[in-house]
Specification:
Layout (H helix, E strand, L loop, with lengths): L4 H18 L2 H7 L8 H14 L1 H4 L13 H8 L4 H11 L10 H14 L13 H6 L35 H5 L18 E2 L12 E8 L10 E3 L2 E6 L3 E6 L5 E6 L4 H7 L9 E3 L2 E5 L4 E6 L5 E6 L12 E3 L2 E6 L9 E2 L1 E6 L5 E6 L21 E2 L7 E3 L4 E5 L7 H4 L16 E5 L6 E6 L15 E7 L2 E9 L5 E5 L5 E5 L7 E4 L6 E3 L12 E2 L13 E3 L4 E7 L2 E6 L11 E6 L9 E7 L4 E8 L8 E3 L3 E5 L4 E6 L5 E6 L9 E5 L2 E8 L4 H6 L15 E7 L7
Parallel strand pairs: 1-34, 13-16
Antiparallel strand pairs: 2-40, 3-4, 4-5, 5-6, 7-8, 8-9, 9-10, 11-12, 12-14, 14-15, 17-18, 18-19, 19-20, 21-22, 22-23, 23-24, 25-26, 27-30, 28-29, 29-32, 30-31, 32-33, 34-35, 35-36, 36-37, 38-39, 39-40
């Protein structure tokens, strides 16, 4: 019978504890020689490092400093029975205290070898390596036995708490298409990307009683992820490709997956370290990684089911996977640099096996369909079209929808080549792409902003809605780019229907009512030698932070920032866009100093229902609920609830960090919860801070999973 890994660790710990009662530590260690071993040379190098990096806090003999001991009974009581991998990971991510993660993996292994030596683990002929599986197999001794050891007290076994993983059922296609009310199974809860919860125990008249139910510290760092919830278990991502399963009612840790990325990969990721979404399907949870893999984990144990490299190292996969008809479909960014050969792709894998089913390159070659829209450029000079938001899926139409970003080398497309039959529209940048998930065939596309010279991505969520259009009910897909202009398209054919402009941009001067073609203000195009004022800023009035849509009222709630920029000519070889300009953030000319904007838009009538404005820019996606509430967070670390009918703020609290992701709602045993992940540091947080200089953020980039519930009353409703 195969024993699960966690069970094997527990068994090993018990064996070691029993051995300690029988024999001295040295004998016990000899009987249970860890594998892999370490060498004297490693331990000696570790001792030298320890004196320089660790002794000040931990003491000259590892257990007489102010920090936790690294040798003797104090060390054994904390680390005994645990895998050496856990200690290695702790050192690698948090030490030295003044400069975490600043040493090489080889140096951390040398320190680990020295700690082993000081705790009397036997020296071997083979050096200690960073192999994750080997470190997980090495169990540290549970206690130190001495000649004068006191017989330990016999304690009763701990009370076994019910584990929701034990009764968890597979996530089916039917569940994904129509989630149970209390579940949050996809990035925006539904495959239509609504961001709407039908739960309503937390209402306009009860939200004032909202309080913290529990919180869980995640791996320190940036975090834009959205948790998922299934049958009482919440799955959450941390910076560095760590995924944890927690009891959604009380925050107990159930399992953890920690991918050990090479330091070279971690250092090169930068903002590409974000993972916006996980995916659940069957008995598996799917995760994209920093080293361009897709990993399938067993949802009950966290063990790897399969691990597939889907793109070259350096490819950015920040959006996350989408499930459609047994396929796991994800978007990717450029590999080997953003300029040359920086094209994006959309990749589908078989959910059961991990086999790659199909792949679509978002930038066509010169002789491929759409290839003659790139100003006669060779393939090497075509860039962009990256995909960094999860897709949406309509099971009735059997179409999956993804959005793409702009080009990166704007200068090569600014002016059309004279006499060339090629255009400079640059397909498939800034487009909505609709695929058959079975075959990968591109069924239709719509380019929202040809030849985008401003970095105004149309790469965000694609929301699926059923609306009355000129008296006819139609299935539509709605999306907006950074200018916050919302285009409404027929979901089956891609036919343009209409647009909604909230009025925060000055680049698009007209939209053809039949085709949706946009006319630009030529004076706003970068690189003309002038310094135009362009609204919005390059980071957008709208951005990847998704809107919420109430399918009952047909109202979308949009998180926006009021901002502009000047595009001054930059010296040769400098500037942000390759057109040669320097971008400077400025407020709109008529600004009253309120930059954050939550806007409710009736998508069917095209009318704005209300606008709630505030000083701090909004930094989160939006959650709407059947309780008549809308939730969002802002740069000043405020998380707030608004009346969805009027926009009036009804409740708010201040968090430890900026909410830079998306709040969700779920229920367990009849209790409704609101959950969110903090972890600032994304580009919008950093870039918009000058607008509100009085807002101060913590120096350390921490990340926390917060969960809220209603406070009990003596006479609950």
């Amino acid at each position: 019978m195969k024993i699960p890994i966690r069970a094997r660790l527990v068994v090993a710990a018990v064996v070691i504890s029993v051995a300690c009662l029988k024999s001295p530590f040295s004998v016990m260690a000899a009987e249970l020689t860890p594998s892999p071993t370490y060498t004297l040379a490693q331990a000696a190098a570790g001792q030298t490092l320890y004196v320089k990096q660790c002794a000040l806090c931990h003491g000259d003999n590892l257990n007489n400093g102010e920090a936790l001991p690294l040798a003797g009974t104090g060390f054994q009581s904390k680390w005994g029975g645990k895998a050496a991998f856990e200690l290695f990971r702790q050192m690698r991510t948090t030490m030295p205290a003044t400069a975490p993660a600043s040493l090489s993996d080889e140096q951390y292994l040398e320190l680990l070898a020295y700690i082993f030596q000081k705790n009397a683990l036997p020296v071997g002929s083979q050096p200690l390596t960073g192999d994750t599986a080997a470190l997980k197999a090495m169990i540290l001794p549970a206690t130190v036995a001495t000649a004068h050891q006191v017989k330990p007290a016999v304690l009763p076994p701990p009370t076994a708490a019910p584990n929701p993983l034990d009764t968890m059922t597979p996530v089916t296609d039917a569940m994904l298409q129509n989630p149970p009310d209390g579940e949050w199974l996809s990035w925006r809860r539904t495959l239509a990307a609504e961001g709407y919860s039908p739960l309503k125990k937390i209402r306009r008249d009860t939200v004032h009683r909202l309080k913290t139910a529990w919180a869980w510290s995640l791996r320190n760092g940036l975090n834009e992820s959205t948790p998922l919830v299934h049958e009482g278990v919440i799955f959450v991502y941390s910076d560095g490709d760590v995924v944890q399963a927690l009891n959604a009612a009380n925050g107990d840790l159930l399992w953890e997956y920690d991918r050990q990325l090479p330091k070279s990969v971690v250092a090169s990721l930068g903002m590409a370290a974000f993972r916006k979404a996980l995916a659940l399907y069957g008995n598996r949870l799917y995760l994209t990684t920093g080293d361009a893999h897709l990993v399938a984990l067993n949802i009950r144990s966290g063990e790897v089911v399969w691990d597939v490299e889907v793109a070259p190292l350096g490819t950015r996969m920040t959006g996350g996977p989408t499930i459609a008809k047994g396929k796991v479909i994800l978007g990717a960014g450029g590999a080997g640099g953003l300029i040359e050969n920086g094209g994006g792709s959309i990749i589908a894998l078989d959910a059961a096996t991990g086999n790659i089913a199909w792949r679509f390159k978002t930038i066509p070659g010169p002789d491929e369909p759409g290839g003659h829209t790139w100003n006669a450029l060779p393939m090497k000079k075509r860039s962009g079209g990256t995909v960094w938001t999860p897709g949406s899926y309509d099971p009735d139409l059997n179409l999956v929808y993804f959005g793409t970003g702009q080009t990166y080398d704007t200068a090569l497309l600014r002016e059309r080549v004279p006499g060339s039959p090629d255009t400079n529209d640059a397909l498939y940048t800034d487009s909505t792409l609709a695929f058959n998930p079975d075959t990968g065939k591109l069924v239709w596309y719509f380019q929202h902003m040809p030849n985008d010279q401003w970095d105004f991505d149309w790469a965000f969520e694609r929301q699926l809605m059923t609306l009355s259009v000129k008296g006819v009910m139609r299935r539509v897909v709605v999306t907006a780019g950074k200018p916050a202009v919302h285009d409404v398209l027929d979901a089956k054919t891609g036919q343009y229907l209409y647009s909604i402009d909230p009025g925060l941009q000055n680049v698009i001067t007209a939209i053809n009512p039949q085709t949706g073609a946009k006319t630009y203000d030529a004076s706003k195009i970068p690189g003309n030698g002038q310094t135009p004022l362009v609204c919005p800023h390059v980071l957008g009035a709208k951005s990847w932070l998704p809107s919420a849509y109430n399918p009952t009222t047909k109202i979308a709630y949009v998180s926006l920032v009021e901002s502009c920029m000047t595009l001054a000519p930059a010296p040769a070889g400098t500037g942000v866009l390759t057109s040669g300009v320097q971008i400077d953030l400025i407020p709109p000319q008529d600004s009253d100093g309120r930059f954050g904007r939550l806007q409710a838009i009736d998508i069917e009538s095209k009318q704005t229902v209300w606008v709630e404005r505030q000083r701090a820019p909004l930094t989160s996606g939006v959650l709407a609920t059947a309780g008549g509430l809308v939730f969002a967070g802002s740069l000043d670390r405020r998380f707030a609830a608004y009346d969805d009918a009027s926009g009036k703020k009804l409740w708010s609290t201040r968090l430890n960090e900026v909410l830079n992701s998306n709040p969700i709602s779920y229920s367990v045993n009849g209790t409704q919860y609101i959950a969110l992940v903090t972890g600032s540091g994304g580009p919008r947080v950093m870039q918009f801070m000058p607008l509100t200089p009085e807002v101060k953020l913590p120096v350390n980039r921490s990340s926390t999973l917060w969960v809220f519930e209603l406070a009990r009353t003596e006479n609950p409703l």
